[in-house]
């Protein structure tokens, strides 16, 4: 989603490659492994959402157009239901499931004001409760869990300027600490954890989709240090991402003029990328979860900007394209 803030009001199954894998640099294979299918759409369209998985359910939070209803998806049955509404309109938030609680961090509220608020959702009580705020305001970053901590990385502040902030949340103590900053400041990036390390991939500079990045950076919490990995083959931002078979799959995204269908997977063990069957519907501002060896992509905008949809498309890396 484009947001140069001059706006007063208004974001354990291995994939099988089909080509030759080359390590390091901009290496990737030329294949298109896997198969996509469509599933039952969400009951309401959304974009610029936060999506997280918890106990086999997908939770879709926020919306660029102000909807606050919590959408809950069961990938086993394809069914949808709603939960307690999020306490305030939000978009470009970050979310992670940990234990039996869903955590939502920051995001943009009315007037594109970035927030430091943290909310916790209890699915049994169907209720939201506030938690300790982040050290700084943050939107359009990423969040991932490593060793019982939630790392919130990158993003933007009010006005659209990027932050290199790396905040670490301890859910058991409801406390925050800071870690080594993200080397390349960016927003709308993909953030995932693999084998105890944090991966930060792609994104854009200061909210401008015309300044997309392909950079891959890897964080080791043991040394509290970042290093550079092989760049993503397609520079893009606003993508969905998920971890499957030890790889980070990055799907879709946008530039200033188009949405992407590209599906590319990063293997940290080889520092190499593979190319996979593209999304049936190129889009951005969406999210993904993994269930039963498949990646479920949820909602998002099929066009650049503030469109939205209820699309659900499912990727099976172990089936051939037909």
From TrEMBL:
<dbReference type="Pfam" id="PF24681">
    <property type="entry name" value="Kelch_KLHDC2_KLHL20_DRC7"/>
</dbReference>
<dbReference type="InterPro" id="IPR052392">
    <property type="entry name" value="Kelch-BTB_domain-containing"/>
</dbReference>
<dbReference type="InterPro" id="IPR015915">
    <property type="entry name" value="Kelch-typ_b-propeller"/>
</dbReference>
<dbReference type="InterPro" id="IPR006652">
    <property type="entry name" value="Kelch_1"/>
</dbReference>
<protein>
    <submittedName>
        <fullName>Kelch repeat-containing protein</fullName>
    </submittedName>
</protein>
<dbReference type="Pfam" id="PF01344">
    <property type="entry name" value="Kelch_1"/>
</dbReference>
């Amino acid at each position: 989603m484009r947001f140069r803030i001059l706006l007063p009001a208004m974001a354990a199954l291995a994939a099988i490659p089909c080509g030759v894998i080359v390590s390091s640099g901009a290496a990737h294979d030329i294949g298109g492994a896997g198969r996509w299918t469509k599933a039952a759409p969400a009951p309401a369209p959304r974009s610029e959402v936060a999506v997280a998985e918890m106990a086999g359910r997908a939770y879709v939070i926020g919306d660029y157009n102000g909807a606050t209803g919590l959408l809950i998806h069961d990938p086993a049955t394809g069914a949808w239901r709603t939960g307690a509404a999020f306490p305030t309109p939000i978009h470009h938030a970050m979310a992670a499931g940990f234990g039996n609680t869903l955590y939502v961090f920051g995001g943009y509220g009315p007037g594109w004001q970035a927030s430091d608020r943290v909310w916790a959702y209890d699915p049994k009580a169907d209720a939201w409760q506030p938690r300790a705020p982040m050290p700084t305001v943050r939107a359009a970053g990423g969040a991932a869990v490593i060793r019982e901590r939630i790392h919130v990385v990158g993003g933007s502040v009010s006005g659209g300027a990027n932050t290199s902030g790396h905040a670490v949340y301890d859910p058991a103590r409801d406390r925050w600490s800071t870690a080594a900053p993200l080397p390349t400041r960016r927003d709308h990036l993909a953030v995932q954890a693999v084998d105890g390390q944090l991966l930060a991939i792609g994104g854009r500079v200061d909210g401008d989709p015309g300044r997309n990045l392909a950079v891959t950076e890897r964080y080791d919490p043991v040394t509290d240090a970042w290093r550079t990995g092989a760049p993503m083959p397609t520079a893009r931002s606003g993508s969905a991402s998920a971890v499957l078979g030890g790889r980070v799959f990055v799907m879709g995204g946008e530039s200033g003029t188009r949405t992407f269908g590209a599906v590319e997977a990063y293997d940290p063990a080889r520092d190499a990328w593979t190319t996979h069957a593209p999304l049936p519907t190129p889009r951005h501002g969406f999210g993904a979860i993994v269930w039963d060896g498949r990646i479920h992509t949820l909602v998002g905008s099929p066009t650049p900007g503030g469109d939205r949809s209820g699309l659900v498309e499912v990727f099976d890396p172990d089936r051939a394209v037909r």
